Amino acid sequence: MTELPTLRESLEQHGLMAKKAFGQHFLLDLNITRKIVRLGGPFDGDTVIEVGPGPGGLTRALLESEAAHVIAVEKDSRFLELLGELNEVFGDRFEVIEGDALKVDEAQLLADRKLSPQAHIVSNLPYNVGTPLLIKWLTGPWRPKSLTLMFQLEVALRVVAPVGDDDYGRLSVISQILCDASKIMDLPARAFTPPPRVDSAVVRLIPKADRPAPAVIKNLEKVTAAAFGQRRKMLRSSLKSLGGEVLLDKAAIDATLRAEQVGPDGFLRLATALS
Ligand code: SAM
């Protein structure tokens, strides 16, 4: 088996430096990437789609796991040659695709390769597109088997925040209605090369089996946008354009509450009532 150079050596050999525009902050310590994969798994016999492999630290850890296939989507073409070297060690279990993860149709990607439509997402996310990517995977037509995602700490806290918490908001409601979500690891900024300005955390999300209908998910986006857009106001005022007290009455929610006082179940009732 070919011996791989260290990640630092790989970057040097290919003359690669991190680019700010692509949100590049690399994990070059394989002990850390192996831990993320261990906590995010098991991936036994499954396909993992990795977004933004960069120099491939997380990719290597995924390929060392029991995952049957790893498909990596990278926007920065400079990394394709370096990542292609992984095939010399891991053969056709690994494939790298140049593309923008926001535009990738995961169901099609898997169908084209005759792979099961069930696959996991693992990513040390580019911070500038972390939230839109999460919303795409949560509310889009393709449902991942699990998501293991590195976010800036502030976003990770919003995903898992309980009702009443300062961080509780749209992202908490949507994530927690559609998934079981937990923060599984904290990472200081110094763990990355170059270090970002803020600390990070890994969140693991497992989509729930009883997913609401697509129309209810759309309504959920509307209701949470209106309610948290004016989070200090009472719901009878912030939800006025969506039906105000009539809607709140239908969903059995006290009209004098504020958005941050209503749990995910309450928002689900509001989204269901808004037909
Ligand atoms: N996974 C690597 C690691 O942990 O060292 C790199 C993580 S770095 C924070 C984010 C990676 O995502 C970069 O490689 C960047 O080029 C890539 N990227 C940025 N935007 C992307 C997009 N829209 N689609 C796919 N990859 C993207």
Automatic annotation (TrEMBL):
Q: What is its EC number?
A: 2.1.1.182
Q: Keywords for this entry?
A: Cytoplasm, Methyltransferase, RNA-binding, rRNA processing, S-adenosyl-L-methionine, Transferase
Q: A Pfam family in this protein?
A: RrnaAD
Catalytic activity reads: adenosine(1518)/adenosine(1519) in 16S rRNA + 4 S-adenosyl-L-methionine = N(6)-dimethyladenosine(1518)/N(6)-dimethyladenosine(1519) in 16S rRNA + 4 S-adenosyl-L-homocysteine + 4 H(+)
Q: Main EC class of this protein?
A: transferase
Organism superkingdom: Bacteria
Sequence ranges assigned to domain Ribosomal RNA adenine methylase transferase N-terminal in this UniProt record? 32-209
Question: Which family does the record claim for this protein?
Answer: Belongs to the class I-like SAM-binding methyltransferase superfamily. rRNA adenine N(6)-methyltransferase family. RsmA subfamily.
This protein is called: Ribosomal RNA small subunit methyltransferase A
Per the UniProt record, the lineage of the source organism begins with: Bacteria, Pseudomonadati, Pseudomonadota, Alphaproteobacteria, Caulobacterales
